[in-house]
## 1
Amino acid sequence: MRKTDGLQVTTEGNAAGSGIRESGGSEKEREPFAEQPDSREGYVGVDGCPGGWVAVRLESGGGWQGAVYSSLAALWEACRGCSLLLIDMPIGLPSGTERRSCDGEARRLLRPWRASSIFAAPVRGVLDVGSYAEANARHKELGGRGLSRQSWALVPKIRELDALLQQEPAACGTIFEAHPELVFAGLAGSPMRGGKKTAEGYAERMAVLQQRLPEAVQVVEELMARYPRRCWPATTSSTRSPWPPPRRRPAAGPDCSRCRRRTCAMRRGCRWRSCTMRLTGSSSHSRRGTRNRSEA
Protein backbone atom coordinates (compact mmCIF):
# COMPACT_ATOMS: atom_id res chain seq x y z
CA MET A 1 0.00 0.00 0.00
CA ARG A 2 1.41 3.39 -0.99
CA LYS A 3 0.15 6.93 -0.52
CA THR A 4 0.30 9.35 -3.41
CA ASP A 5 -0.54 12.99 -2.67
CA GLY A 6 -3.20 11.93 -0.20
CA LEU A 7 -4.79 9.43 -2.60
CA GLN A 8 -5.02 5.70 -2.20
CA VAL A 9 -5.54 3.49 -5.23
CA THR A 10 -7.23 0.11 -4.92
CA THR A 11 -9.28 -2.25 -7.04
CA GLU A 12 -11.96 -4.60 -5.76
CA GLY A 13 -14.16 -5.41 -8.71
CA ASN A 14 -14.55 -7.40 -11.90
CA ALA A 15 -15.87 -6.30 -15.27
CA ALA A 16 -16.01 -7.20 -18.94
CA GLY A 17 -15.96 -4.89 -21.95
CA SER A 18 -14.02 -1.82 -22.99
CA GLY A 19 -14.28 1.96 -22.99
CA ILE A 20 -14.23 5.00 -20.72
CA ARG A 21 -16.82 7.13 -19.01
CA GLU A 22 -16.02 10.62 -17.81
CA SER A 23 -16.23 11.30 -14.08
CA GLY A 24 -18.75 13.63 -12.50
CA GLY A 25 -21.82 11.90 -13.91
CA SER A 26 -21.29 13.14 -17.46
CA GLU A 27 -22.58 10.94 -20.25
CA LYS A 28 -19.81 12.13 -22.56
CA GLU A 29 -17.76 9.21 -23.76
CA ARG A 30 -14.02 9.49 -23.79
CA GLU A 31 -11.27 7.70 -25.63
CA PRO A 32 -8.84 5.32 -23.88
CA PHE A 33 -6.16 6.71 -21.58
CA ALA A 34 -3.35 6.87 -24.14
CA GLU A 35 -5.24 9.28 -26.40
CA GLN A 36 -5.91 11.83 -23.66
CA PRO A 37 -3.48 14.74 -23.06
CA ASP A 38 -3.45 14.09 -19.30
CA SER A 39 -3.56 10.30 -19.56
CA ARG A 40 0.11 9.91 -18.64
CA GLU A 41 -0.40 11.24 -15.13
CA GLY A 42 -2.18 10.00 -12.04
CA TYR A 43 -2.34 6.75 -10.13
CA VAL A 44 -3.86 3.55 -11.47
CA GLY A 45 -5.35 0.52 -9.73
CA VAL A 46 -5.57 -2.70 -11.76
CA ASP A 47 -7.18 -6.09 -11.24
CA GLY A 48 -7.79 -9.10 -13.42
CA CYS A 49 -11.34 -9.71 -14.66
CA PRO A 50 -13.08 -12.10 -17.10
CA GLY A 51 -12.75 -9.53 -19.88
CA GLY A 52 -9.04 -9.00 -19.30
CA TRP A 53 -7.86 -6.25 -16.95
CA VAL A 54 -9.95 -3.53 -15.31
CA ALA A 55 -8.19 -0.26 -14.50
CA VAL A 56 -9.26 2.85 -12.61
CA ARG A 57 -7.11 5.98 -12.72
CA LEU A 58 -7.30 8.69 -10.08
CA GLU A 59 -5.98 12.13 -10.91
CA SER A 60 -4.33 14.37 -8.36
CA GLY A 61 -7.03 16.95 -9.07
CA GLY A 62 -9.79 14.56 -8.05
CA GLY A 63 -11.01 13.25 -11.44
CA TRP A 64 -11.11 9.61 -12.45
CA GLN A 65 -11.32 7.35 -15.48
CA GLY A 66 -12.01 3.65 -15.83
CA ALA A 67 -11.59 1.10 -18.60
CA VAL A 68 -11.20 -2.60 -19.34
CA TYR A 69 -8.34 -3.83 -21.54
CA SER A 70 -8.18 -7.20 -23.23
CA SER A 71 -4.46 -7.51 -22.52
CA LEU A 72 -2.01 -6.18 -19.97
CA ALA A 73 0.24 -4.98 -22.78
CA ALA A 74 -2.52 -2.71 -24.08
CA LEU A 75 -3.14 -1.39 -20.58
CA TRP A 76 0.55 -0.66 -20.10
CA GLU A 77 0.73 1.26 -23.38
CA ALA A 78 -2.20 3.40 -22.25
CA CYS A 79 -0.80 4.01 -18.76
CA ARG A 80 2.92 3.90 -19.46
CA GLY A 81 3.56 7.39 -18.07
CA CYS A 82 1.45 7.12 -14.93
CA SER A 83 3.14 7.90 -11.64
CA LEU A 84 2.16 4.61 -10.04
CA LEU A 85 0.29 1.48 -11.08
CA LEU A 86 -0.86 -0.90 -8.35
CA ILE A 87 -1.98 -4.37 -9.40
CA ASP A 88 -3.68 -7.12 -7.41
CA MET A 89 -1.46 -9.91 -8.71
CA PRO A 90 1.70 -11.59 -7.35
CA ILE A 91 5.00 -10.08 -8.49
CA GLY A 92 8.18 -11.98 -7.72
CA LEU A 93 7.55 -15.72 -7.68
CA PRO A 94 9.44 -18.30 -5.63
CA SER A 95 11.43 -20.95 -7.47
CA GLY A 96 11.55 -23.58 -4.72
CA THR A 97 10.27 -24.41 -1.27
CA GLU A 98 10.88 -20.93 0.10
CA ARG A 99 7.79 -18.86 0.86
CA ARG A 100 7.37 -15.18 0.08
CA SER A 101 7.89 -13.26 3.30
CA CYS A 102 5.47 -10.57 2.12
CA ASP A 103 2.60 -13.09 2.13
CA GLY A 104 3.26 -14.04 5.73
CA GLU A 105 3.51 -10.41 6.79
CA ALA A 106 0.27 -9.61 4.95
CA ARG A 107 -1.57 -12.39 6.78
CA ARG A 108 -0.26 -11.08 10.09
CA LEU A 109 -1.52 -7.59 9.33
CA LEU A 110 -4.96 -8.86 8.28
CA ARG A 111 -5.64 -11.00 11.36
CA PRO A 112 -8.07 -11.98 12.64
CA TRP A 113 -10.72 -11.47 9.94
CA ARG A 114 -9.09 -11.23 6.53
CA ALA A 115 -5.89 -13.27 6.78
CA SER A 116 -7.42 -16.05 4.66
CA SER A 117 -7.66 -13.65 1.69
CA ILE A 118 -3.87 -13.98 1.24
CA PHE A 119 -2.91 -17.22 -0.49
CA ALA A 120 0.52 -18.47 -1.42
CA ALA A 121 1.86 -17.45 -4.81
CA PRO A 122 2.69 -20.35 -7.14
CA VAL A 123 6.26 -21.27 -7.98
CA ARG A 124 7.61 -20.01 -11.27
CA GLY A 125 7.94 -23.53 -12.65
CA VAL A 126 4.17 -23.91 -13.17
CA LEU A 127 3.73 -20.87 -15.43
CA ASP A 128 4.28 -22.92 -18.59
CA VAL A 129 2.07 -25.85 -17.57
CA GLY A 130 -1.21 -26.46 -19.40
CA SER A 131 -3.30 -28.48 -16.92
CA TYR A 132 -4.04 -28.35 -13.23
CA ALA A 133 -3.04 -31.95 -12.64
CA GLU A 134 0.39 -31.39 -14.16
CA ALA A 135 0.79 -28.05 -12.37
CA ASN A 136 -0.14 -29.59 -9.03
CA ALA A 137 2.39 -32.40 -9.48
CA ARG A 138 5.15 -29.99 -10.50
CA HIS A 139 4.32 -27.65 -7.64
CA LYS A 140 4.70 -30.53 -5.16
CA GLU A 141 8.03 -31.43 -6.74
CA LEU A 142 9.43 -27.89 -6.78
CA GLY A 143 7.64 -26.22 -3.90
CA GLY A 144 7.09 -29.13 -1.54
CA ARG A 145 3.33 -28.61 -1.40
CA GLY A 146 0.32 -28.82 -3.68
CA LEU A 147 -1.13 -25.98 -5.75
CA SER A 148 -4.60 -24.73 -4.82
CA ARG A 149 -7.30 -24.38 -7.45
CA GLN A 150 -7.53 -20.69 -6.61
CA SER A 151 -3.86 -20.14 -7.36
CA TRP A 152 -4.09 -22.19 -10.54
CA ALA A 153 -6.97 -20.03 -11.80
CA LEU A 154 -4.67 -16.99 -11.57
CA VAL A 155 -1.71 -18.58 -13.38
CA PRO A 156 -2.63 -17.16 -16.84
CA LYS A 157 -2.84 -13.64 -15.38
CA ILE A 158 0.38 -14.11 -13.42
CA ARG A 159 2.11 -15.40 -16.55
CA GLU A 160 0.97 -12.35 -18.53
CA LEU A 161 2.17 -9.95 -15.84
CA ASP A 162 5.49 -11.75 -15.44
CA ALA A 163 6.10 -11.60 -19.19
CA LEU A 164 5.34 -7.87 -19.31
CA LEU A 165 7.76 -7.08 -16.48
CA GLN A 166 10.52 -9.02 -18.21
CA GLN A 167 9.89 -7.41 -21.60
CA GLU A 168 9.38 -3.85 -20.34
CA PRO A 169 12.13 -2.75 -17.91
CA ALA A 170 10.38 0.61 -17.40
CA ALA A 171 7.33 -1.20 -16.02
CA CYS A 172 9.37 -2.48 -13.07
CA GLY A 173 9.61 1.04 -11.70
CA THR A 174 5.91 1.81 -12.11
CA ILE A 175 3.98 -1.42 -11.51
CA PHE A 176 3.82 -2.65 -7.92
CA GLU A 177 1.95 -5.49 -6.28
CA ALA A 178 -0.91 -4.48 -3.98
CA HIS A 179 -3.71 -6.27 -2.15
CA PRO A 180 -7.13 -4.63 -1.72
CA GLU A 181 -7.64 -5.94 1.81
CA LEU A 182 -4.30 -4.46 2.92
CA VAL A 183 -5.27 -1.12 1.40
CA PHE A 184 -8.62 -1.13 3.19
CA ALA A 185 -6.94 -2.12 6.45
CA GLY A 186 -4.47 0.74 6.06
CA LEU A 187 -7.20 3.28 5.32
CA ALA A 188 -9.50 2.12 8.11
CA GLY A 189 -6.82 1.37 10.70
CA SER A 190 -7.86 -2.28 11.02
CA PRO A 191 -8.89 -5.17 8.72
CA MET A 192 -12.41 -5.25 7.32
CA ARG A 193 -14.77 -7.44 9.33
CA GLY A 194 -17.22 -8.48 6.65
CA GLY A 195 -16.52 -10.45 3.49
CA LYS A 196 -16.36 -8.41 0.29
CA LYS A 197 -19.22 -10.38 -1.30
CA THR A 198 -21.68 -9.64 1.50
CA ALA A 199 -23.86 -6.55 1.71
CA GLU A 200 -22.31 -5.63 5.05
CA GLY A 201 -18.76 -6.04 3.76
CA TYR A 202 -19.50 -4.04 0.63
CA ALA A 203 -21.00 -1.18 2.64
CA GLU A 204 -18.05 -1.28 5.03
CA ARG A 205 -15.54 -0.90 2.19
CA MET A 206 -17.50 1.79 0.39
CA ALA A 207 -17.70 3.82 3.61
CA VAL A 208 -13.91 3.65 3.92
CA LEU A 209 -13.40 4.71 0.30
CA GLN A 210 -15.86 7.60 0.59
CA GLN A 211 -13.80 9.09 3.40
CA ARG A 212 -10.95 9.60 0.91
CA LEU A 213 -12.91 9.75 -2.35
CA PRO A 214 -16.46 11.13 -1.85
CA GLU A 215 -17.53 10.04 -5.35
CA ALA A 216 -16.49 6.40 -4.77
CA VAL A 217 -20.08 5.15 -5.06
CA GLN A 218 -20.48 7.01 -8.34
CA VAL A 219 -17.27 5.46 -9.69
CA VAL A 220 -18.49 1.95 -8.90
CA GLU A 221 -22.01 2.54 -10.22
CA GLU A 222 -20.84 4.04 -13.51
CA LEU A 223 -18.27 1.35 -14.19
CA MET A 224 -20.71 -1.45 -13.38
CA ALA A 225 -23.39 0.13 -15.55
CA ARG A 226 -20.93 0.33 -18.45
CA TYR A 227 -19.49 -3.16 -17.93
CA PRO A 228 -22.41 -5.20 -16.55
CA ARG A 229 -22.30 -8.86 -15.62
CA ARG A 230 -25.38 -11.05 -15.57
CA CYS A 231 -25.07 -11.65 -11.84
CA TRP A 232 -24.82 -7.92 -11.06
CA PRO A 233 -27.75 -5.48 -10.80
CA ALA A 234 -27.70 -2.50 -13.16
CA THR A 235 -27.02 -0.12 -10.28
CA THR A 236 -25.86 -0.41 -6.72
CA SER A 237 -25.62 1.72 -3.60
CA SER A 238 -23.33 2.09 -0.64
CA THR A 239 -25.44 -0.37 1.37
CA ARG A 240 -26.20 -2.93 -1.34
CA SER A 241 -23.68 -5.49 -2.46
CA PRO A 242 -23.24 -5.82 -6.26
CA TRP A 243 -22.18 -9.45 -5.88
CA PRO A 244 -24.55 -12.42 -5.71
CA PRO A 245 -25.24 -13.83 -2.23
CA PRO A 246 -22.67 -16.37 -1.03
CA ARG A 247 -23.45 -20.07 -1.24
CA ARG A 248 -25.03 -21.59 1.78
CA ARG A 249 -22.82 -23.84 3.81
CA PRO A 250 -24.03 -27.33 4.75
CA ALA A 251 -25.91 -27.60 7.99
CA ALA A 252 -23.68 -27.75 11.05
CA GLY A 253 -23.14 -31.04 12.83
CA PRO A 254 -22.39 -31.71 16.50
CA ASP A 255 -19.56 -30.04 18.37
CA CYS A 256 -16.30 -31.95 18.19
CA SER A 257 -15.53 -33.55 21.55
CA ARG A 258 -11.84 -32.86 21.10
CA CYS A 259 -11.58 -29.27 19.89
CA ARG A 260 -15.13 -28.20 20.85
CA ARG A 261 -15.73 -26.66 17.46
CA ARG A 262 -18.75 -27.25 15.28
CA THR A 263 -18.34 -30.04 12.76
CA CYS A 264 -19.77 -30.13 9.25
CA ALA A 265 -22.77 -32.43 8.78
CA MET A 266 -21.60 -33.28 5.25
CA ARG A 267 -18.28 -34.76 6.43
CA ARG A 268 -17.71 -37.68 8.77
CA GLY A 269 -15.11 -35.95 10.84
CA CYS A 270 -13.99 -32.71 12.35
CA ARG A 271 -13.40 -30.14 9.64
CA TRP A 272 -10.55 -28.45 11.50
CA ARG A 273 -7.17 -29.59 10.19
CA SER A 274 -5.52 -29.41 13.58
CA CYS A 275 -8.04 -31.87 15.05
CA THR A 276 -7.67 -35.59 14.35
CA MET A 277 -11.05 -36.66 15.74
CA ARG A 278 -13.35 -38.49 13.34
CA LEU A 279 -17.11 -39.01 13.56
CA THR A 280 -18.46 -42.56 13.27
CA GLY A 281 -22.20 -42.24 12.91
CA SER A 282 -23.88 -42.72 16.29
CA SER A 283 -20.63 -43.21 18.19
CA SER A 284 -19.95 -41.78 21.61
CA HIS A 285 -18.16 -38.90 19.86
CA SER A 286 -21.37 -37.85 18.10
CA ARG A 287 -23.52 -38.27 21.20
CA ARG A 288 -21.02 -36.43 23.35
CA GLY A 289 -20.76 -33.63 20.82
CA THR A 290 -24.52 -33.23 20.69
CA ARG A 291 -24.68 -33.11 24.49
CA ASN A 292 -21.94 -30.48 24.58
CA ARG A 293 -23.84 -28.34 22.12
CA SER A 294 -27.11 -28.57 24.07
CA GLU A 295 -25.35 -27.70 27.30
CA ALA A 296 -23.62 -24.65 25.80
## 2
Amino acid sequence: MRIVAHGVLFLFGIAAYGALVAGIRTDLGILVRLPVVLLIGFVSVLFHELGHASAVTALGGRVHRIVVLPLMWDSATRRVALAPAIPGGEVGGYVSYTLDTINARRKRIWIALAGPAADAAVFLATLLALALLASAVQPSTDLAPVIMPSDGSSARLPFEAALKAAATERPINLDWLSACLTALGLTSIGAGVANLLPFQGSDGHHILRNLRRRRQSP
Protein backbone atom coordinates (compact mmCIF):
# COMPACT_ATOMS: atom_id res chain seq x y z
CA MET A 1 0.00 0.00 0.00
CA ARG A 2 2.95 2.32 0.55
CA ILE A 3 3.80 1.99 -3.15
CA VAL A 4 0.26 3.04 -4.06
CA ALA A 5 0.53 6.04 -1.73
CA HIS A 6 3.82 7.07 -3.30
CA GLY A 7 2.19 6.69 -6.72
CA VAL A 8 -0.63 9.02 -5.66
CA LEU A 9 1.87 11.57 -4.38
CA PHE A 10 3.85 11.29 -7.60
CA LEU A 11 0.81 11.89 -9.82
CA PHE A 12 -0.39 14.90 -7.83
CA GLY A 13 3.19 16.16 -7.68
CA ILE A 14 3.48 16.01 -11.47
CA ALA A 15 0.20 17.91 -11.80
CA ALA A 16 1.38 20.53 -9.31
CA TYR A 17 4.68 20.98 -11.12
CA GLY A 18 2.82 21.27 -14.41
CA ALA A 19 0.80 24.14 -12.93
CA LEU A 20 4.03 25.86 -11.94
CA VAL A 21 5.53 25.37 -15.40
CA ALA A 22 2.44 26.89 -16.99
CA GLY A 23 2.28 29.85 -14.60
CA ILE A 24 5.93 30.61 -13.88
CA ARG A 25 7.55 31.42 -17.19
CA THR A 26 11.20 32.29 -16.77
CA ASP A 27 14.47 31.66 -18.54
CA LEU A 28 15.91 30.21 -15.34
CA GLY A 29 13.39 27.36 -15.45
CA ILE A 30 13.93 24.72 -12.78
CA LEU A 31 16.31 26.96 -10.83
CA VAL A 32 13.29 29.09 -9.92
CA ARG A 33 10.61 26.39 -9.84
CA LEU A 34 12.49 23.91 -7.63
CA PRO A 35 12.68 26.24 -4.58
CA VAL A 36 8.99 27.05 -5.11
CA VAL A 37 8.18 23.31 -5.17
CA LEU A 38 10.09 22.76 -1.93
CA LEU A 39 8.39 25.71 -0.26
CA ILE A 40 4.93 24.55 -1.33
CA GLY A 41 5.67 21.05 -0.06
CA PHE A 42 6.80 22.47 3.28
CA VAL A 43 3.66 24.62 3.60
CA SER A 44 1.43 21.66 2.71
CA VAL A 45 3.02 19.43 5.37
CA LEU A 46 2.88 22.29 7.88
CA PHE A 47 -0.90 22.68 7.48
CA HIS A 48 -1.31 18.91 7.71
CA GLU A 49 0.60 18.66 10.97
CA LEU A 50 -1.10 21.75 12.39
CA GLY A 51 -4.39 19.95 11.75
CA HIS A 52 -3.19 17.06 13.92
CA ALA A 53 -1.90 19.42 16.61
CA SER A 54 -5.14 21.40 16.68
CA ALA A 55 -7.14 18.20 17.16
CA VAL A 56 -4.86 17.12 20.01
CA THR A 57 -5.40 20.43 21.78
CA ALA A 58 -9.17 20.37 21.15
CA LEU A 59 -9.44 16.87 22.63
CA GLY A 60 -7.57 17.80 25.79
CA GLY A 61 -4.19 16.35 24.88
CA ARG A 62 -0.77 17.92 25.09
CA VAL A 63 1.43 18.56 22.05
CA HIS A 64 5.11 17.96 22.76
CA ARG A 65 6.64 18.37 19.34
CA ILE A 66 5.64 19.36 15.81
CA VAL A 67 8.04 18.20 13.11
CA VAL A 68 7.94 19.44 9.53
CA LEU A 69 11.17 18.45 7.87
CA PRO A 70 13.72 19.85 8.17
CA LEU A 71 12.43 21.83 11.18
CA MET A 72 10.97 20.98 14.56
CA TRP A 73 9.04 22.99 17.15
CA ASP A 74 9.44 21.84 20.77
CA SER A 75 6.74 22.88 23.24
CA ALA A 76 9.09 22.59 26.23
CA THR A 77 11.63 25.07 24.90
CA ARG A 78 9.19 26.91 22.58
CA ARG A 79 11.93 27.06 19.98
CA VAL A 80 12.37 25.94 16.40
CA ALA A 81 15.36 23.73 15.65
CA LEU A 82 16.55 21.21 13.09
CA ALA A 83 14.53 18.01 13.28
CA PRO A 84 16.02 14.59 14.03
CA ALA A 85 15.38 11.54 11.86
CA ILE A 86 11.69 10.66 11.55
CA PRO A 87 10.76 7.40 13.31
CA GLY A 88 8.15 4.82 12.39
CA GLY A 89 7.96 5.44 8.67
CA GLU A 90 6.38 8.87 8.98
CA VAL A 91 6.65 10.93 5.78
CA GLY A 92 7.24 14.67 5.82
CA GLY A 93 6.51 15.29 9.47
CA TYR A 94 4.68 14.18 12.60
CA VAL A 95 3.19 15.42 15.86
CA SER A 96 4.32 13.99 19.19
CA TYR A 97 1.60 14.19 21.86
CA THR A 98 0.08 12.58 24.94
CA LEU A 99 -3.58 11.91 25.78
CA ASP A 100 -5.45 10.85 28.87
CA THR A 101 -6.78 7.28 28.89
CA ILE A 102 -10.45 8.26 28.66
CA ASN A 103 -11.71 7.37 25.16
CA ALA A 104 -8.11 7.42 23.97
CA ARG A 105 -8.73 5.23 20.91
CA ARG A 106 -11.62 7.36 19.71
CA LYS A 107 -9.56 10.50 20.22
CA ARG A 108 -6.64 9.04 18.26
CA ILE A 109 -8.99 8.34 15.35
CA TRP A 110 -10.15 11.96 15.30
CA ILE A 111 -6.57 13.19 15.58
CA ALA A 112 -5.51 11.01 12.65
CA LEU A 113 -8.45 12.27 10.57
CA ALA A 114 -7.58 15.90 11.33
CA GLY A 115 -4.49 15.82 9.10
CA PRO A 116 -6.31 14.85 5.87
CA ALA A 117 -9.16 17.16 6.91
CA ALA A 118 -6.67 20.03 7.02
CA ASP A 119 -5.43 19.02 3.56
CA ALA A 120 -9.00 19.12 2.24
CA ALA A 121 -9.54 22.53 3.85
CA VAL A 122 -6.40 23.89 2.16
CA PHE A 123 -7.58 22.48 -1.18
CA LEU A 124 -11.00 24.14 -0.84
CA ALA A 125 -9.38 27.40 0.28
CA THR A 126 -7.15 27.44 -2.81
CA LEU A 127 -10.17 26.81 -5.04
CA LEU A 128 -11.95 29.75 -3.44
CA ALA A 129 -8.87 31.96 -3.76
CA LEU A 130 -8.47 31.04 -7.43
CA ALA A 131 -12.14 31.82 -8.11
CA LEU A 132 -11.82 35.20 -6.41
CA LEU A 133 -8.60 35.91 -8.28
CA ALA A 134 -10.21 35.04 -11.62
CA SER A 135 -13.16 37.33 -10.96
CA ALA A 136 -10.89 40.14 -9.79
CA VAL A 137 -8.93 40.30 -13.06
CA GLN A 138 -11.99 40.33 -15.33
CA PRO A 139 -12.39 43.76 -16.94
CA SER A 140 -15.61 45.58 -16.15
CA THR A 141 -17.41 47.58 -18.85
CA ASP A 142 -20.67 48.18 -16.99
CA LEU A 143 -20.04 51.92 -16.59
CA ALA A 144 -18.43 52.49 -19.97
CA PRO A 145 -20.59 54.77 -22.16
CA VAL A 146 -21.49 53.60 -25.64
CA ILE A 147 -21.09 56.15 -28.43
CA MET A 148 -23.79 55.86 -31.10
CA PRO A 149 -22.48 57.28 -34.39
CA SER A 150 -24.89 59.54 -36.29
CA ASP A 151 -23.93 58.01 -39.64
CA GLY A 152 -25.39 54.61 -38.73
CA SER A 153 -22.04 52.81 -38.38
CA SER A 154 -21.50 50.29 -35.63
CA ALA A 155 -21.14 51.59 -32.08
CA ARG A 156 -17.75 51.43 -30.39
CA LEU A 157 -16.75 51.56 -26.76
CA PRO A 158 -14.22 54.18 -25.69
CA PHE A 159 -10.72 52.75 -25.27
CA GLU A 160 -11.86 49.50 -26.93
CA ALA A 161 -8.30 48.47 -27.69
CA ALA A 162 -7.29 48.93 -24.06
CA LEU A 163 -10.25 46.85 -22.88
CA LYS A 164 -9.35 44.03 -25.24
CA ALA A 165 -5.77 44.10 -23.99
CA ALA A 166 -6.95 43.99 -20.38
CA ALA A 167 -9.10 40.96 -21.18
CA THR A 168 -6.24 38.99 -22.71
CA GLU A 169 -3.22 40.09 -20.66
CA ARG A 170 -2.64 39.34 -16.99
CA PRO A 171 0.17 40.67 -14.81
CA ILE A 172 2.91 38.12 -14.33
CA ASN A 173 2.63 38.33 -10.55
CA LEU A 174 -0.98 37.12 -10.79
CA ASP A 175 0.13 34.24 -13.01
CA TRP A 176 2.69 33.27 -10.38
CA LEU A 177 0.11 33.53 -7.61
CA SER A 178 -2.41 31.42 -9.52
CA ALA A 179 0.24 28.80 -10.27
CA CYS A 180 1.37 28.61 -6.64
CA LEU A 181 -2.21 28.36 -5.34
CA THR A 182 -2.99 25.60 -7.83
CA ALA A 183 0.18 23.71 -6.91
CA LEU A 184 -0.53 24.08 -3.18
CA GLY A 185 -4.08 22.80 -3.61
CA LEU A 186 -2.99 19.79 -5.67
CA THR A 187 -0.12 18.97 -3.30
CA SER A 188 -2.39 19.18 -0.26
CA ILE A 189 -5.23 17.04 -1.61
CA GLY A 190 -2.72 14.52 -2.93
CA ALA A 191 -1.10 14.29 0.50
CA GLY A 192 -4.52 13.89 2.12
CA VAL A 193 -5.52 11.02 -0.17
CA ALA A 194 -2.15 9.29 0.20
CA ASN A 195 -2.23 9.61 3.99
CA LEU A 196 -5.63 7.93 4.20
CA LEU A 197 -4.19 4.77 2.62
CA PRO A 198 -3.31 2.23 5.35
CA PHE A 199 0.46 1.79 5.32
CA GLN A 200 2.93 1.90 8.20
CA GLY A 201 3.07 5.41 9.66
CA SER A 202 0.13 6.84 7.67
CA ASP A 203 -3.00 8.39 9.11
CA GLY A 204 -5.03 5.62 7.49
CA HIS A 205 -2.92 3.05 9.35
CA HIS A 206 -3.53 4.79 12.69
CA ILE A 207 -7.27 5.03 12.00
CA LEU A 208 -7.58 1.37 11.00
CA ARG A 209 -5.48 0.16 13.94
CA ASN A 210 -7.54 2.06 16.50
CA LEU A 211 -10.82 0.94 14.88
CA ARG A 212 -9.72 -2.68 15.17
CA ARG A 213 -8.74 -2.22 18.81
CA ARG A 214 -12.12 -0.67 19.60
CA ARG A 215 -13.90 -3.66 18.05
CA GLN A 216 -11.70 -6.16 19.89
CA SER A 217 -12.05 -4.47 23.28
CA PRO A 218 -14.86 -5.84 25.52
